[in-house]
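Worked Example 4.2. Consider the chain below.
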Amino acid sequence: MNLGDLALQIEDMRKRVALLQRQSEQEKAQEEIELITAVLEEVHLALEELQIANEDLQQQNEELSHTQKDLVAQRQRYQELFEEVPDAYFVTDTKGVIQEANSAATTLLNISKSFLLGELLEIYVVEKEIIAFHLKLTHLRDRAEIPDWKMQEWEVNLRPRDRTPIIAAVKVVAIRNQQDSLVGLRWILRDISESKRTQAKLQWAEQAMRQALAKEREFSELKSRLLTITSHEFRTPLATIHSSAELLEYYRHLWSDERQLIHLRRIQTSVMHMTQLLNDVLVLSQDETGKLEFNPTPLNLVEFCRDLLEELQQSDRSQHAIAFSSECQCTQANLDAKLLRQILSNLLSNCLKYSPIGSTVKFSVTTANDQAIFQTQDSGIGIPPCDIEHIFEPFHRASNAGNTPGMGLGMSIVKQAVDLHGGEIFVESAISAGTTFTVILPFSIHFHV
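Applying the procedure from the previous section yields the following structure tokens:
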């Protein structure tokens, strides 16, 4: 029974007492006694009902007091839990205006609670992501009609006050009233910047390991191919040397000087060929192990090129003509002589190797704008279009090379040497019409005297 019911009962009692009083004024004495007795009985009953009502009210008051205490205790426990949560915890309205924030939230954004409350949460999002954040918030509101939408999660870049931006993991849960309408949002934000950096480092380490393993496999395959091809390429010159030496040993006293000279030249050519093979293998090995160095020194370009041509013509035994031209504004250049020899000797050797006997190979050197420009041109077999994009790969030989000796290392070495100079190399070729290579090397400002 509540207080309203008790008031109604009392009012009803008053009305009945008043009625009895009016009746008592009109009846006789005996009737008055009976009336008074009835009144007393009514009053007694009323008192008993009032006693019962009072007891009910006391019990209800005690229950209300216990309920109030429970609510206070629950509120206190909620507040303690709210404050002790290690993650940043926000309560906002449906528009994202902050209504509550715990201590972790103030630490995360480096700002006191008094400045947080009443602010839009999105103002702490980095500028480039504000629109995306606002669209997500709008999407959450648009889904308010769906009573069972689950927790939403994403990542966002936040900018705490006077600190560098951080990456935060966001979890959002709906707050609904008894009518199941959306009235607010609960947000949990966690700083995952360090874990992201650790993850990036792990990914980088994993990628580096994969690259190292791939490089190791590539190097292992390279060594295997190198041994196979080198052993094959060395057999021919070694067989020539052995054959000519043996013939000279047994028959030189029967041969003319000219015939002996033929075999001696065969031996010399084979030795030079083997030397070139060994030089190519050495350069390739140094590049693969990172030991190939760039050491520019001052040198006279014209003299350097003439000396190299003299050596090549001797080994070619004048089977080809080499037309050399130079237009140098400055003959002195700071280049790596060893690497430059590799570049030019490989290019010119290929010109001689793949050109018809008796043909002319053109070679020129010019300087301009602190750059040396070398060009070789032959009228040989040319390079098929399908092979041009692969000619600088180790062990690649053009499909029309046939039985012409070679390991497929020369052009790879040329490219490496050009790259070490910081230069460029270009090729133009046509089948049966010849090939032109152009090498541009910038002068180095660092050199050893």
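The mean pLDDT is 80. Residues 233 and 373 are 32 Å apart (CA to CA). Compare this with Example 4.1 before moving on.
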